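Review form for a predicted model. The reviewer records the input and the model, then writes brief findings.
Reviewer: anonymous (R2)
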Amino acid sequence: MKHSRQITTLRAAAVISSTIIGVGILSFPRHMAVAGGSSAPLVAFSGVIISFLSFWVLATLCRRFPKESLFVFSRRLVGRQLGGFFNLLILLVFIVLTGLSARQFGDVATTVLFKKTPVEATIFLMLLICQLSSRRNLIKFSYIHFFYLPLIIGSVLVTILISMKNVDLLNLQPVLTVPTATFWNGAREASYLFQSYFVITLLIPFMQKPKQAVHAGALAIFVSGAVYLLIVIASVGLFGAEETKLLIYPTLETARSAAVGEGFLERLDALFIVIWVISVYTTIYTNYYIAACLLQNLFAFEDQRMTSSLLLPVLFIIAMLPANVFQTYSWSLLLGKASMLLIMGYPLLLWAVYLLRRYRKKGSA
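Model under review:
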């Protein structure tokens, strides 16, 4: 199967980065403060490193097969049945991830933006927009992310950097503490936000330079990681670790504290929440697209347009299953643990099979 290689390395990085910056950005500093106190930035940085190492294993494997996606070459490595089984598990992960992300968006939107709008309506409209967008091919998919990324990063950075003038450096001390189990649990939770880098498995067959997939992912992870790190520094530095733990959405409160001049720009939180909605869309869109492509591969459909429509009611049902925001968060943590084992463990298994086959070929030559 011949692919039109139109996706540049920079555009691939844009897809990964805009996917990573998503629904969790509002509450992220609170989780990091709970895990590390004043060392919250170090917890976030450790999560970024964990994510990059996991991505490196996946991307270096996939670029060995630059003409095929992971869902195709994995069946050739471990067998059709076993490969199909793991592909099914990954499909289930992204179906549940998309549903829970939509529910998190709905909970925040009805709390902050649309207080009189039923959460069902907010969730369904977001999923419907993602479903319609998922009917596009992968090239157009990458252009959508490339278009929105500067808007997302630029607006977030401007808001955070303006709020930095109110940061008290004493709130960030001591920076270094002895890593505890809570510290590493927080770092692992931070890495959950980066797991959508899995989209690189779809992008590599369409990249102009598939050998640069690792460079694209490294750029994306460290750019988005820097955004998350700055948000944690601004929130903890502004409110202190203990107060940050008590705030539901510390990032939003940080944006509210940002102002330019005397009465010139005093409601940057309004701009920030609009950009947040766009960032949530790009994240849910990617997860939806991955699920649609996996389902298309599973049933051997021609493209993902049919499967994207089939997924819509399923995702809406999953989004409505949690009883409240606390259950949504607990389910997201369980899913994060399961997906981390799968997304890290499966590529390692494929690497082992690949290296074993290469060794056997060399031995028989």
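Findings: Residues 325-364 form the longest helix (40 residues).
Further findings: The two ends are 29 Å apart (CA to CA).
Recommendation: see findings above.
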